[in-house]
Write a structure and sequence with these properties.
This protein is α+β, with helices and mostly antiparallel strands. It is about 30% helix and about 20% strand. A hairpin with a 6-residue loop joins β2 and β3.
Length: about 220
């Protein structure tokens, strides 16, 4: 009887025991997927930052003390800052230059805030002063003026060309009025100008707009 009960107990225990779950198959390695031979991995270089732009050279004055709008504009503009350094060097060379004239020029430059194109006004102010100092230097040989016969013969009109100074320019004289003008881009002929003035010579005839006074001129032989 005991042997029979022992057999029943063993049978019940075997029926309650859960079947062992076979271990899961290991996941295929990358090399085992796809082709039999895995492609070699390559080291991708890390992106490098672009080189920093060179710092802008400052003008001749301390930008921390810039007071006028014109000076602040110069401090943030590489071309204007270069012209300021050039002007400071040229003025230092001209020992005989009148300081009062230089101060007057600076006041005129600072008034450029009144103009519609302030940067162009400041640019022309620097170029004009550079030309004034260059052509007024001791020993400077003045080129021969070119005389013109114009449609309005009330006033004489001449141009004096300074090709060998920096910046190149021309001095325009109409009667008692005089202006320094600078080369301008032109498809043909020779073109000079500044704000309010335009001169264009093409095929032996020059058209001039001098602050609203329009002239048609030809060089006097």
């Amino acid at each position: 009887m005991k042997a029979f009960l022992s057999c029943i107990a063993l049978w019940l225990l075997a029926g309650c025991t859960r079947e062992a779950v076979p271990p899961a198959a290991p996941a295929p390695r990358p090399a085992e997927t796809g082709s039999a031979t895995a492609a070699p991995t390559r080291d991708v270089p890390a992106p490098t930052a672009p080189p920093a732009a060179p710092a802008m050279a400052p003008p001749s004055f301390d930008c921390a003390k810039a007071a006028s709008d014109a000076e602040k504009l110069v401090c943030g503009d590489a071309e204007l800052a270069a012209l300021d350094r050039q002007l400071a060097a040229r003025y230092a060379e001209r020992k005989e230059a009148d300081p009062a004239v230089q101060r007057g020029w600076a006041m005129g430059r600072d008034d450029c805030w009144k103009q519609a194109d302030q940067r162009l006004c400041v640019l022309e102010a620097y170029r004009t002063r550079l030309v004034e100092l260059a052509i007024g230097a001791p020993g400077m040989v003045v080129p021969t003026p070119v005389e013109y016969r114009c449609s309005d013969n009330r006033l004489p009109f001449t141009m004096v060309y300074y090709h060998d100074i920096d910046p190149p320019a021309a001095v325009m004289t109409w009667g008692n009025d005089q202006a320094i003008v600078f080369p301008q881009p032109a498809a043909s002929g020779a073109k000079y100008g500044r704000v309010g003035i335009e001169y264009w010579e093409h095929q032996g005839e020059a058209t001039v707009d001098f602050f609203g006074n329009k002239l048609s001129c030809t060089p006097v032989p």
